[in-house]
Design a protein that fits this description.
The chain is mainly α and about 90 residues long. The protein contains 3 helices and no strands.
């Protein structure tokens, strides 16, 4: 709910307030108790929050793939050199 309000262009403090109100409107009566929502507070500048439209998670795949390929190549190179010695 909070991030939806941020994407609408609201400042972080207003987005948090609106998200809490929306939560109270849609939550089950047993979950409207303040212990479920009152602990969410904003730290920092309310206008300093910027959210990109889209985050690209593919970049996190590059490192493990490169690491895996490097390991496979190192093992093949090591095995090939052992065969030449014996």
């Amino acid at each position: 709910l909070f991030y939806e309000e941020i994407q609408k262009g609201n400042a972080a403090d207003e987005a948090l307030r609106l998200a809490k109100l929306r939560y109270l409107e849609t939550a089950h009566p047993s979950e409207r108790d303040p212990r479920f929502w009152a602990g969410l507070v904003l730290f920092g500048e309310p206008d300093g929050f910027r959210m990109d439209e889209r985050t690209d998670n593919r970049r996190w795949l590059i490192f493990p793939i490169v690491l895996l390929l490097s390991g496979v190549m190192a093992l093949r190179f090591r095995r090939r050199n052992r065969r030449k010695l014996f």
